Amino acid sequence: MKYACTILISISLILSFLGCKNAPVQLTAEPMIGLENPSLHIMVKESEVPPITGSFGWGFSLLKLPPEFGTTLSAVNNRLHSAMLEEMTVKGLVFDESEPDLLLSYAVAGGGEIHTDELTQAYGDMIDASFLEMESDLHYKHGVLILDVLDRRSGDLLWRGAIMADIDMTLPDEEKQARCNAAVKALLQHYPRPGTIDQ
Amino acid sequence: MNNPTQSIGKAIKSRLSKIFLISLLSCTLLGGCGVVKVAVVATVAVVGFAGYAVYKTGETVVTGVGKAGGAVVTGVGAAASVVFINGDFKTQYPGRVQIVWTAARVAFEKAMFVKINGSFDALSGEVTAETREGTKITLKLKSSDQQTTEASIRVGVTGDMELSETIHNLILKELSAPSGPPALPRTAQEIK
Predict the structure, then answer these.
(1) Do B84 and A24 touch (CB under 8 A)?
(2) pTM score > 0.80 for this model?
(3) pLDDT digits (tens, 9 = 90+) for B23-72
(4) Domains delineated in chain A
(5) Which CATH class is domain B83-191?
(6) Residue of A nearest to B66 (CA)
(7) Which residues of B touch A132 (CB under 8 A)?
């Protein structure tokens, strides 16, 4: 009996560790260059696993940057495109501007806020946002970057990730690309589902 | 000889141990780290999106308190929202269509664009022009309310964010000139 108990306890402990390895993990926001107090918000469509094969292209870019941000909108756009391109390519998706399977949109506000109505308005006729019925009136606070992944054909929003943080406006230009890369990586490491990817 | 009461006690103890171990094994096999899963998924009900699982961390997450103020400019130079989609650079300017139309027209002339044309009324307007290299520029205006005009800038056939932003800044510069926005023409025909 003693041996049986010992064996069972050992098996339980081993399986517990194995179980933990594959289980979803709590979201974490690691310290990032030029960003203070980061927090994450990930929204995933439950009925459809966002794909990690096929192609992707750009949806919209929504930018709300105050003049003191000290950079042009197109420079920010280019930095974010570069970061998103790298992360999505690493996941196995191929960039295709003409007829992509997925559309990748983003919204960024430096030190400001973005309301979900603004995102819906930006999509215009691209998607029917009525399926996104919300019980509360939401807006994303602080400096925020929001990434959306949509199925281009159906117009369904499959995944939305937002990172909110206090932005260091004094960051030198040469480090801004690194900040973009870090923020995009922090979000897309939770694509297609939080905790279901290799860390 | 064993006491019968002790034997029963041992038997119960042994069965309880087995039940505990089997339960532990079952939980492990079926749920893995079930506690962690519950902790993450529990946030779904907080936000209440239909058909979406929501995961969050940190304190500065979304809140349900009020609106963010929309996408409307509150003054020249403020952080207006700009949307670049399908080659169109969409933004808003403070002032009525006539004011923005005139500022754009003046900005185009100062930039020495050629073939400048356009018209406006109280509700909408359009200005078209070409760069020296023949790239077409189209500015479309639409009245949002008495203080705001929605604008769409397109450069070339497929759109160009960088050039659109340059044109946007030229228009903003005219609108924020110390002498005020350019004087309004009495009619759209007057400036043709």
Answers:
(1) no
(2) no
(3) 555 544 444 332 223 233 333 334 446 678 888 776 655 554 333 333 33
(4) 32-188 (3.30.160)
(5) alpha beta
(6) A137
(7) 49-50, 52
